Amino acid sequence: MPDPILKVSGLTTDISTPYGVIRAARDISFHLDRGETLGIVGESGSGKTISVLSVLGLLPSRYAQITRGTVEFNGQDITKASKRKLRKLRGKELGVVFQDPMTSLNPVVTIGTQLIEAVEAHVGDMTTEEAKARAVELLSMVGVPDAVQRLDQFPHEFSGGMKQRAMIAMAIANRPEVLIADEPTTALDVTIQAQILEVLQVAQRETDAALILITHDLGVIAEMADRVLVMYSGRVVESGPVGDVFHDPKHPYTVGLLSSLPSLDSDGQRLVPIPGTPPGGLSVPTGCAFHPRCEMSNERQLCSSTLPELTNVGNARLAACHFSDEVTDWRKAMIAGDRNDA
Ligand SMILES: Nc1ncnc2c1ncn2[C@@H]1O[C@H](COP(=O)(O)OP(=O)(O)O)[C@@H](O)[C@H]1O
Ligand code: SF4
Ligand SMILES: [Mg+2]
After folding, report:
1. Residue 299 — very low, low, confident or very high, per pLDDT cuts 50/70/90?
2. Which residues surround ligand 3, an ion (CB under 5 A)?
3. Residue 97 and residue 167 in contact, taking contact as beta carbons nearer than 8 Å
4. How far is residue 259's CA from residue 246's CA, in Å, rounded to a whole number?
């Protein structure tokens, strides 16, 4: 098997707040194979954004630090790389698309100038004409009509969807090996969301990039991702091939998340949603952080006393539950129970 393009091991990130230190990412390990799409899901606050900002070297260093772990990109640990090296890497090998394009677009510079800068930054021997032609090509590729004219416009003259298209064009300007999209459609009108995801897929195809896609929309993960990571309270609690994980989850939290989707494998049954709210970063429960909300635990002592490690549960799958071998039957019983109630 070829080496993964990205290998994250034991990544741990702390955030200092006036109320104490939040361990926002805890012992995160995963890999990304070349060309594949990895989905990351989990409720708000589960550490998805902090994890990818850590990977990208984009943590706000005033109050957030990686305290442990490595991020190997093409076999090299980049957690200790200089700011300059990281910036270079992000412009070329790692393309990023955030929820809010205005965090990455400069409001006082035309879209064309920003795109041309992105293209020229890494291809030194390009003439201005060539860079402009490439910028037009990129904008057309992501479905911005009248690309030549629109190069002269400022970000505020672009609609939300068009801004996000421009962001994707910038992210792929230098044919990155990895694209990271953090909730790329969350801020957009529902009618536009599917179009932007399609553009992202086109962009990935054109560049052969591997994609990390963070979204709370499990339907999107089912459609686009090859593998999925499920996060809870700063940790990875389950991972594996999307089809397997969605069909037969091995962690009660994943079962709960999937209940927000019409069931993929039965007749549109919905399970009850997860009760309660996720823990804030300052007060993580002992043992399994999910135990106060877990409907499968039955208040077993092991759940509140001991942290379940992420362990192999077969077929390239991992789960962090002491009783993961019970999940399949428990879920079946719940679905059957729901049917009887109906
Ligand atoms: N700027 C910040 N200041 C304080 N806490 C933060 C900040 N950003 C994130 N956190 C905390 O870090 C944890 C993970 O947040 P985040 O990675 O943004 O979650 P997600 O992207 O999954 O919604 C949360 O507990 C959140 O409260
Ligand atoms: S370890 Fe216990 S509390 Fe945690 S998910 Fe498994 S059964 Fe639930
Ligand atoms: Mg986030």
Report:
1. very high
2. 48-49
3. yes
4. 10
* pLDDT tens digit sequence for 39-94: 999 999 999 999 999 999 999 989 999 999 999 999 999 999 998 999 889 888 99
Centre a 10 Å sphere on the Cβ of residue 187 and count the other Cβ atoms it contains: 16
Nearest ligand by distance to the CA of 46 = 1
Task: Say how many Å lie between the CA of residue 325 and the centre of ligand 3.
Answer: 30
Instruction: Supply φ then ψ for residue 170, to 5 degrees.
Output: -65, -40
Residue 340 CA to residue 223 CA, distance in Å, equals: 30
Ligand 2 pocket: which of 321, 324, 325, 328 to mutate (most atoms within 8 A of CB): 321
Task: Identify the CA nearest to 173 among candidates 221, 98, 120.
Answer: 120
Backbone angles phi, psi at 340, to 5 degrees: -65, -35
Atom of ligand 1 nearest to the CA of 53: 17
DSSP-derived pairing of the beta strands 178-182 and 210-214? parallel
Model confidence, pTM:
0.94
Q: Are 44 and 216 in contact (CB under 8 A)?
A: yes
- Which residue of 28, 49, 183, 284 sits with most ligand 1 atoms within 8 Å of its CB, as the best mutation to test the pocket? 49
294 touches ligand 2 (CB under 6 Å):
yes
Given a contact cutoff of 8 angstroms between Cβ atoms, the answer to whether 228 and 240 are in contact is yes
**H-assigned helices in the chain:** 48-56, 83-92, 111-122, 128-141, 147-150, 160-171, 190-207, 218-224, 242-247, 252-258, 301-305, 327-341
CATH 3.40.50.300 fits 6-225, yes or no: yes
CATH 3.40.50.300 in the chain, residue ranges:
6-225
